[in-house]
């Protein structure tokens, strides 16, 4: 079981990873609340040559499904730029949220926009790293909240080798998906799980709320989370509250 945590981008991630004894870590390469282009990191070579794997999480405002050109176009550019920055760190992939549409917009167009993201990049030789599409917690017009929406999304992008999947346990729980047997159901749709965001939830099942809790401190049975992690056969990233990450890691190692 290869497990790790999301680390602050302004820290020394390798030193923190070594202190925690983790196998993989996740980080941003730019301010997650802005459109700023990633800047070269002075420690890029150290991160790239480390024995600890790295995955990059894209900035939050990215929505490649959007029908609004003023949001979709910069989102496409940001995915390309952040994938390149991830490659410079030797990352195994770039996590991108599924995105959403507005009331009254046709879902088929949002799924088509996801396909266009990969088609347009294929014309340029592909992304610098695989894109791990992450399921989301809420929203009636989300592209990747339910298994039904994920299946429609995969019908659009599943034939691209660079389209991967990131399963967030808190998001699935909040989105109303039973975690027992979920990895098998996801694989039945996507054929793959590339990364797990292993998070408990502060809120009840099907709440639509994305509020993470530490593994033994939320509304999800931690035994269900650990069993899902074992079945996923993919690296796991804790995005749980920082003050409890050491205890989360100790819990997983105790198993």
CATH topology heading: TIM Barrel
CATH homology group: Divalent-metal-dependent TIM barrel enzymes
- The number of distinct helices, counting runs of at least 4 residues, comes to 9
The outline comes out as globular
Low-confidence runs of at least 5 consecutive residues: none
Structural class: alpha/beta
Ordered list of secondary-structure elements with their pairings:
Blueprint: E1 3-6, H1 13-20, E2 24-27, H2 44-49, E3 53-57, H3 69-88, E4 94-97, H4 107-122, E5 131-134, H5 147-157, E6 163-168, H6 169-174, H7 182-190, E7 195-197, E8 200-201, E9 212-213, H8 222-232, E10 236-238, H9 245-254
Parallel strand pairs: 1-2, 1-10, 2-3, 3-4, 4-5, 5-6, 6-7, 7-10
Antiparallel strand pairs: 8-9
Describe the protein's architecture and organization.
The protein is an alpha/beta fold and 255 residues long. It has helices at residues 13-20, 44-49, 69-88, 107-122, 147-157, 169-174, 182-190, 222-232, 245-254; strands spanning 3-6, 24-27, 53-57, 94-97, 131-134, 163-168, 195-197, 200-201, 212-213, 236-238. The strands form two sheets. It has an eight-stranded parallel β-barrel with strand order 1-2-3-4-5-6-7-10. A two-stranded antiparallel ribbon has the order 8-9. Helix 2 links the parallel strand 2 and strand 3. The chain is globular. The model has no long low-confidence stretch (mean pLDDT 97).
Keywords:
255 residues; TIM Barrel; alpha/beta; 10 strands; 38% helix; 15% strand
């Amino acid at each position: 079981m290869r497990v790790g945590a999301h680390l602050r981008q302004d820290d020394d991630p390798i030193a923190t990873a070594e202190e925690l004894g983790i196998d993989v870590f996740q980080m941003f390469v730019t301010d997650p609340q802005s459109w700023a282009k990633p800047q070269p990191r002075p420690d890029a070579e150290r991160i790239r040559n480390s024995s600890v794997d790295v995955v990059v999480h894209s900035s939050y405002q990215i929505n490649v499904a959007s029908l609004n050109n003023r949001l979709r176009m910069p989102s496409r550019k940001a995915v390309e730029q952040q994938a390149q920055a991830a490659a410079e760190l030797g990352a195994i992939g770039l996590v991108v949220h599924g995105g959403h549409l507005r009331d009254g917009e046709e879902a088929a167009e949002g799924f088509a926009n996801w396909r266009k993201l990969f088609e347009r990049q294929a014309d340029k030789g592909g992304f610098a790293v695989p894109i791990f599409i992450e399921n989301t917690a809420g929203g009636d017009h989300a592209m990747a909240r339910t298994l039904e929406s994920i299946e429609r999304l995969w019908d659009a992008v599943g034939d691209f080798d660079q389209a991967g999947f990131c399963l967030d346990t808190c998001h699935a729980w909040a989105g109303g998906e039973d975690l027992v047997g979920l990895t098998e159901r996801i694989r039945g749709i996507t054929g793959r799980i590339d990364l797990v965001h292993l998070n408990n939830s502060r809120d009840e099942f099907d709440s639509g709320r994305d509020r993470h809790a530490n593994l033994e401190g939320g509304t999800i049975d931690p035994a269900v989370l650990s069993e899902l992690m074992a079945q996923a056969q993919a690296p796991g990233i804790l995005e749980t509250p920082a003050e409890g990450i050491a205890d989360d890691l100790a819990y997983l190692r105790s198993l």
